[in-house]
Write the structure tokens for this entry.
Amino acid sequence: MYAPLIAFVGTTPNIGTTLAAFAAASRIAESGDAAVGYLCLNLKSAKLHRYVGVDRPASGLDTIRPELRDRSLEPAKLLRTTYPIRGIPGLHALFGNMERDQAEFYTAEDIEFLLETARWTFDVVVADVGAYWDNAATVCALREASTRVLATTGALSHFQEDWSRWIGQVSPLFGVPSTSYELLVIQPPWKNGGFHVKNIGKETGLTMIGELRLTEPMMLQLDNGRYDQWLGSAEGRETMKPSAEAWMRQYGVRKKRPKHLQPWYRKLLAHRNGVGL
């Protein structure tokens, strides 16, 4: 099966695009009967490894550069290079490039080969790319994507100026129409200021796929390298859930079957827990 590719791009750097992309991948892996590959393709600003408590990744995008260059990367090798996320079976994260000064060394052919291999390795692939279009990862991932998710905020400079300059002007130059994105609005922790989502949708002309509100508890867990654990909390489990479910329906990802306990095992659990039958 050639997996669908869901690519996330921000109108502006450091607005929470990575948080949205990783949360969406987590929701699909939790709810769906599918292996999900998360690719950090931020060639100049990879941060996911810190968000999940890995200060110095032993493997990642830069460690498979030789295999990308000579086109020898196989699904088994890609799978071994990914990091299994704690508490989220089925989610495999490929950490991003650690050598920022070598970002330009990745060619379009390298990234296209990586995306092709990933789509044969996993059932669903989620790619998180940078906001700037001056690198092969952003251009290639958005060109190849089955679904393109544009993240922005209620700040006028983000959804108007940055959207116009990058998505409105640059994106079509690479064969990606500015109307081919789904809109995701990220709300900052503070409640005051910013434009309403209806204004953002009207300005961009894009279909709304969801919202993500950044909260103080979420930001605290980022600093502590526990974002993956926070996504398993009561608040975290709702993050990007409606959007993820919409993509699961779109691409025919089956939901996991609930585990039914045999009657004798339920009775045994009840007895051990001191619950009357």
